[in-house]
User: Fold these one by one.
Assistant:
Number 1:
Amino acid sequence: MAGFFITFEGPDGSGKTTQLKLLTQWFRAQDVAPVLLRQPGGTPLGEQIRSIVLHSRTDEKLGVLDPMAELALMFADRAQSIAEVILPALQHNRVVLCDRYTDSSEAYQGAGRGLGSARVLTLHAELCGGLQPDLTVLLLPDVEKALLRARHRNEGALQVGGDDENRFERAGDDFFRRVHAGYTAIAKREPQRVVAIGGDRSIEDVAKAVRDAVAARWTPAAAHTGAY
Ligand code: ADP
Ligand code: TYD
């Protein structure tokens, strides 16, 4: 398949949004306009799924989302994104940058919720045609550091009265630690695809490591630079 597919992964607060923005600027400076999307979300249907998943954590009327239902929703979102955005973009030789993908389901639902990796990987094969990124940037700050960042951000959001989109940080430290361990296991299993950037590094330091990982695998000449 033509095009180049990059996913960003990591626990909440690991710096994905920050690094996605910087990498987008780097591509644009080379006249390459990446296709950007996030999961859950990225399509009209996906944004509705996102809203259900994230609000179910605070809106009691919605009831508690069963872990299996949560996993199914993540894959429904992903299948739609693949069909509607990712495959068409790759077929048009575009660079696709996706904030989270199947590794998130493996880390959060597989490890965090305890549903197991095998189930997630089977669903990925069945529902996503096994489509794998060319590169996955895994941001994995020290677990204590990441917890602290996520908490700060949540507190900030709550203070300004936002509904905080209610991420999984609320699930507690143990859950967060299992997610972290899940990511570590994925990086060990697939060192070719997954470039893990860990430790306590500055934003610019991480950005440089991300650019190096991309530059080692992607050349501008191969990229389509405009709209479809
Ligand atoms: P994510 O999208 O993974 O949840 P963000 O990019 O929103 O993470 O980052 C969470 C917070 O941590 C933000 O306040 C951001 O400015 C800060 N941050 C991101 N990367 C770093 C870093 N390398 N060192 C210190 N703080 C960082
Ligand atoms: P998001 O705001 O994208 O993440 P972040 O807090 O890192 O900026 O929130 C999405 C949430 O959904 C996040 O807590 C991870 C979770 N998630 C899963 O549990 N499974 C999945 O398959 C995906 C894609 C996300």
Number 2:
Amino acid sequence: MRIDVVSIFPEYLAPLELSLIGKARQDGLLQLNVHNLRDFTTDRHRTVDDTPYGGGAGMVMKPEPWAQALAAVAAARPEAASADTEAPEAAAKPVLIVPSPAGERFTQATAQELAEEEQLVFACGRYEGIDERVMEWAADHFTVRPMSLGDYVLNGGEVAVLAMVEAIGRLLPGVVGNPDSLVEESHSDGLLEYPVYTKPSSWRDRDVPAVLLSGNHGKIAQWRRHEQYRRTAERRPDLLAEFDAGKLPRADRTAFADLGYDVVDGRLRRRPDAGAGRN
Ligand code: ADE
């Protein structure tokens, strides 16, 4: 996969040289290029912002440096999609991700979808955002996707890009050493992950749950599933509304009943008389 990031603070992206993503770059699994938006300005002051039409606080990013920068990265297609392949015209448009609190929510499902792409381009806005016409213009060259990490406001897109590139990059084949670790983790099945323990089995008067020492793999798997249900009901009950409960074994239905949820038409429904939960 090729990833291009355009930012006025390229140094902000330095952590992408570390750890698993840094190693993936060294191993050639991920080609990641960071570009300084100011390199695409033409004035002496390398200006990237101006006052907003209609008035109001803050500054807006000017369209022309963005168009120059995005045209340059769109021209640099990954090898597989470059002009010397047999059918270059068949190559998909790269995806342009614009981090913004006004974007669609970035989730594990989005990360999985984007991990299939050949080229991703991230446009890090600062100030009050990028002139909206850039998004309209870019739609001719990219699949444009404004994306939000969550319902809070950051100072710019760079921190969001660090999070999204890590979430996407670790799904690329070969990046995470043991692919099994991608299977049983939070959000891979719509639930939060079960709690984990390591040695010693007794630590500061706290014992590891006995079932985990039993060697009974069926019992361990069931305990872990039920812990996922308990945690998700307590911390993220919103996730349970989406959970497919149609094929749950009886013991799992009982576990949900104990948490105050019944299965109705394959979906979990919180019993109105259930004890005061968090939500
Ligand atoms: N830029 C500013 N806030 C953001 C958010 N919540 N998600 C993604 N990008 C952002």
